[in-house]
């Protein structure tokens, strides 16, 4: 499997509870390398553009409000099959369905406030990385 990069976000429910280090430890234990990382505060509009694919869903407005409610940590994770590996470490969207030991099983508060985002495919990973990071911030 090829080395990939994926976009990860540690969401407001997790930054609020000071869980960045614990979540990063899960990534590193799984063999994912954090190759770029920054803490930013999104506007509701910026969150809306990021989650545009969900704009017809009933939870879209609530999701954008939540993502803009407090700072997030955006990061690029790198490794063999990083996109799928990250999804595995994150666990299912709804923490009630997330496998034991996954980030969402251990830390998520609800389906809406589920601690982490991870890209779901190579195309979305490339788009999402470019949304938050410039070429200068990504060391080769
Ligand atoms: P994932 O974050 O696992 O890729 P997704 O892309 O389907 O899940 O949804 C994006 C985010 O939207 C998800 O992390 C939390 C929110 N969300 C999804 N389904 C929801 C629901 N039924 N109620 C409230 N929020 C939801
Ligand atoms: Mg998704």
Automatic annotation (TrEMBL):
Where mainly found? cytoplasm
Q: Which cofactors does it use?
A: Mg(2+)
Q: Which domain of life is it from?
A: Bacteria
**PANTHER family assigned:** NUCLEOSIDE DIPHOSPHATE KINASE, NUCLEOSIDE DIPHOSPHATE KINASE DDB_G0292928-RELATED
| Binding site residues for ATP | 11, 59, 87, 93, 104, 114
- Listed GO cellular component terms? cytoplasm
Q: What reaction does this enzyme carry out catalytically? A: a ribonucleoside 5'-diphosphate + ATP = a ribonucleoside 5'-triphosphate + ADP; a 2'-deoxyribonucleoside 5'-diphosphate + ATP = a 2'-deoxyribonucleoside 5'-triphosphate + ADP
What gene does this protein come from? Answer: ndk
Question: What's in the keyword line of the UniProt record?
Answer: ATP-binding, Cytoplasm, Kinase, Magnesium, Metal-binding, Nucleotide metabolism, Nucleotide-binding, Phosphoprotein, Transferase
Q: Where in the cell is it found?
A: Cytoplasm
- Which top-level enzyme class is recorded in the Swiss-Prot or TrEMBL entry? transferase
Please report the name of this protein according to its UniProt entry. Nucleoside diphosphate kinase
Q: Output the SMART domains linked to this UniProt entry.
A: NDK
- Protein EC: 2.7.4.6
Similarity section: Belongs to the NDK family.
Query: Which purpose does this protein serve, as stated in its record?
Result: Major role in the synthesis of nucleoside triphosphates other than ATP. The ATP gamma phosphate is transferred to the NDP beta phosphate via a ping-pong mechanism, using a phosphorylated active-site intermediate.
Respond yes or no to whether keyword Calcium is given for this record.
no
């Amino acid at each position: 499997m090829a080395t990939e990069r994926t976009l990860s976000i540690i969401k407001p429910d997790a930054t609020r509870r000071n869980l960045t280090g614990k979540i990063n430890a899960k990534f590193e234990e799984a063999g994912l390398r954090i190759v770029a990382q920054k803490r930013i505060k999104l506007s509701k509009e910026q969150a809306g553009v990021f989650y545009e694919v969900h704009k017809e869903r009933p939870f879209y407005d609530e999701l954008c409000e939540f993502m803009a409610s407090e700072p997030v940590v955006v990061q690029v994770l790198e490794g063999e099959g990083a996109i799928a590996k990250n999804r595995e470490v994150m666990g299912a969207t709804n923490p009630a369905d997330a496998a034991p030991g996954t980030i969402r099983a251990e830390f998520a508060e609800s389906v809406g406030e589920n601690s982490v985002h991870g890209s779901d495919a190579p195309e979305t990973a490339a788009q999402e990385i470019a949304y938050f990071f410039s070429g200068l911030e990504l060391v080769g």
